[in-house]
Design brief:
By secondary structure, the protein is mostly helical. It has helices at 23-38, 43-55, 59-72, 77-89, 93-106, 111-123, 127-140, 145-157, 161-174, 179-191, 195-208, 213-225, 229-242, 247-259, 263-276, 281-292, 297-310, 315-327, 331-344, 349-361, 365-378, 383-394. It starts with 22 loop residues before the first helix and ends in a 5-residue tail after the last helix.
């Protein structure tokens, strides 16, 4: 029988299923073991037990049973396919592809076998080989939306967005109520340089399934990229309303609100994101930057120190920390932060400029000139850099 792509037990994500069995799963496994105990050389019963074990999350045991089934009946393409699905679920993509390939050689009219082989090859980064096998699957069953979808995804990964659009559109036409297909078509349209059509597909996805936070978030990000920030805010608010504990959505909403000049509202979203995911450096950074322009300067410094601790090699975080320390009246610490930014990215003119200004304000004019000269050397077209350097050079040294 042709397998449905929406139930893909061979996807790598399936390997993450918990190993502990529910009472229902334990009962199913026990019932599948009984005929194997009575007929240990039956490939059929071994195969059925392997599938039950796989569905229960016992991948290693499932592989053992299915390998034995294949040993007992090596010319059975369905057993080879089930073993391939199980190997792929266990992260053994190369071995899975070999089983799927063997299945296609035994039954060259089964589209599911070619689809599985194509997806396994795509997992291994063999996009063109995957496209070839997935085209075979589509040719064998042209009305299968999942096969068109899989071929479209492979074409996109092979760098052929135009062809990907064609296949993904076929999937959408076959299953117009599948929001995921609309999203993938939208992504392909964006890659093909057709942003207006992409936005329409993102919108359709939210219409098909208005309860999906992910669809609203994807639509919001594309609206932002199209310069329609006000509409993007509304969509991201819908995402947050549907998944209020998703730190990423709060963060994205904060960025959108900041773009719209709603600084306080953005700060609130960043704060909630940081509460939900305190170990996310980007969130702590954006919260710290948002607080730097407020009276909460100590909080800004604290957030940016957290961001730096989480990603100590990030020059941008070090520079932002320096600016926050400067605003908080800690010039010596600010200098250290700016120097750390320069150590990480010495070819960034802004970091030299920021260090130059704090050195200037501290009365260290000669050192400030050295940094401002570096900024001008790195970005000679920046008028602010040139003006500041000229002013400082011409300043009387007793000021």
């Amino acid at each position: 029988a042709q397998a449905a792509a929406s139930r893909d037990p061979g996807s790598p994500a399936a390997a993450a299923r918990p190993a502990s069995l529910s009472p229902q799963q334990a009962d199913a496994v026990e019932r599948a073991r009984r005929p194997v105990a009575d007929y240990p050389t039956s490939a059929k019963y071994r195969g059925e037990l392997g599938v039950v074990l796989r569905d229960a999350g016992r991948t290693a045991e499932a592989v053992t049973e299915l390998q034995e089934a294949v040993r007992l009946d090596p010319q059975n393409p369905n057993l080879l396919y089930e073993l391939g699905v199980t190997l792929r679920a266990g992260g053994m993509g190369r071995e899975a592809a070999a089983q799927f390939d063997a299945a296609t050689r035994l039954d060259a009219r089964n589209g599911t076998f070619f689809d599985a082989l194509g997806n396994a090859l795509l997992d291994q980064g063999q996009a063109e080989d995957a496209v070839d096998r997935l085209r075979r699957a589509v040719g064998l069953q042209r009305d299968n939306a999942a096969f068109h979808r899989d071929l479209g995804v492979a074409l996109a990964k092979a760098g052929r967005p135009g062809d990907a659009v064609n296949e993904l559109r076929q999937a959408v036409l076959a299953e117009t109520r599948n929001g995921g297909y609309h999203i993938e078509l939208a992504q392909a349209l964006d890659a093909a340089g057709r942003p207006d059509e992409a936005l329409a597909e993102y919108r359709d996805a939210t219409t098909v399934d208005a309860t999906s936070a992910a669809y609203h978030a994807a639509y919001a990000r594309d609206l932002r990229a199209a310069g329609r920030g006000g509409e993007a805010v509304g969509e991201m608010k819908s995402a947050v309303a549907r998944e209020p504990r998703n730190a990423g959505y709060h963060h994205d909403l904060g960025l959108l609100l900041r773009d719209q000049g709603q600084s306080y509202e953005a700060q609130q979203e960043f704060t909630e994101a940081a509460r939900l995911e305190p170990g996310n450096a980007a969130i702590r950074f954006d919260l710290g930057v948002a607080l730097t322009g407020t009276t909460r300067r100590a909080d800004a410094v604290a957030e940016l120190k957290e961001a730096v601790q989480l990603q100590p090699g990030n020059a941008g975080y070090q520079d932002a920390l320096g600016l926050a320390l400067k605003a908080a009246g800690s010039p010596t610490e600010a200098m250290a932060a700016f120097r750390a930014a320069i150590a990480a990215a010495g070819d960034n003119a802004k970091y030299h400029f920021d260090l130059g200004l704090v050195l200037r304000d501290a009365g260290l004019v000669d050192e400030a000139i050295v940094e401002l000269e570096a900024a001008v050397r790195l970005d000679g077209h920046n008028r602010d850099y040139r003006t500041e350097l000229s002013t400082l050079r011409n300043r009387p040294r007793n000021e």
